[in-house]
Amino acid sequence: MTRLRLPTYFLSHGAGPWSFMEGEFRLRFQTLEHALGQIGKELEDVESILVVSAHWEERGFAISSGASPGMIYDYYGFPPYTYNVHYKAPGSPALAHRVQQLLESGGIKPRLDPNRGYDHGTFGMMKPLRPKADKPIVQLSLHRNLDPELHFAVGRMLMPLRDEGAAILGSGQSFQNLGLRDARAIEPSAAFDAWLQQTVVHSSPDERHKKLMNWEDAPYARVAHAREEHLIPLMVAAGAAGEDAAECIYHEQLWGFMTAASFRFGRPQRAH
Q1: pLDDT, average across residues 243-269
Q2: pLDDT digits (tens, 9 = 90+) for 148-177
Q3: Which of 32, 90, 227, 239 ranks highest by number of CB atoms within 10 Å?
Q4: CA–CA gap between residue 211 and residue 137 (Å, rounded)
């Protein structure tokens, strides 16, 4: 049977352990939760998942390689029970070694980290995406230099995974400014989102690449991302996309003031 090429994704992942919570805070993410659930249906037949999380940075690139990753509670100010939640998906040493092989073939020397657990950039979105925790997951770190061209190149190196049953998910946030959690975020987040939509969805692959590499020229770029770790996973996803077109698969004014979006590159295996 011929295997279909998997899409690659950039997903806005929400705040902290929101998907393990109940009550008003969880309800704020209803639209995001529904969108992630739909994406999970598209990944029903994948063999494994590679997550590029905004919440893991290293001096070089690192790959989680343990068979049973633990949890990293890398947030603060949440209820005590959220520091004892668990997402029990297995790791995949085989996928970790394959990622290492692909990057080494491109001239990058990543290290394997058998002790790395799931940070909230992974488990926060994977809980609604795959609530059964039934897909093996490997995490790839960002390089601390946050160079967009380097991370785009890494995505290109990882493209063969899409033909090997491994989905590539960039986990970040399309607008990330914790200092603007009120109406002041409305204008800058909407303006940056309009640029992002035009760049990712409505540009040719070559133009998309050019604009993403010069993302600081976007309206309110440094208001949207004072530090760009939550945007850089998009560069990996876009690099792995190759010539594939993109679609916006989640879009809302989160909390009533912050425009947030997620994107899929390529065609889904399953319809919504």
Answers
A1: 94
A2: 999 999 999 999 999 999 999 999 999 999
A3: 239
A4: 30
Is residue 249 helix, strand or coil?
Answer: strand
Instruction: Give the pLDDT confidence of 22-54 residue by residue, as tens digits.
Output: 999 999 999 999 999 999 999 999 999 999 999
Query: Do the beta carbons of residue 13 and residue 56 sit within 8 Å?
Result: no
User: Where would I find the beta strands (DSSP E) of the chain?
Assistant: 8-12, 48-58, 62-64, 111-113, 137-143, 166-172, 246-254, 258-265
DSSP annotation of 77: S
Strands of 145-236, DSSP E? 166-172
18: three-class secondary structure by DSSP: helix
- Name beta bridge partners: 63: 112, 140
Q: Return the pLDDT at 81.
A: 96
Domains within the chain, CATH numbers bracketed: 8-265 (3.40.830.10)
Model confidence over 62-92: pLDDT tens digits? 999 999 999 999 999 999 999 999 999 999 9
Residues in the chain: 272
User: Rounded to the nearest 10 degrees, how much is the dihedral formed by the CA atoms of 254, 259, 260, 262?
Assistant: 130
Q: What is the arrangement of strands in the sheet containing 258-265, beginning at the earlier edge strand?
A: 111-113, 62-64, 137-143, 48-58, 166-172, 8-12, 258-265, 246-254
pLDDT reported for residue 181: 79
What are the angstrom distances between the C-alpha of 265 and each of 99, 106, 187, 205?
Answer: 20, 22, 27, 11
In angstroms, the CA 150 to CA 255 distance is 33
**What pLDDT band is residue 270 in, cutting at 50, 70 and 90?**
low
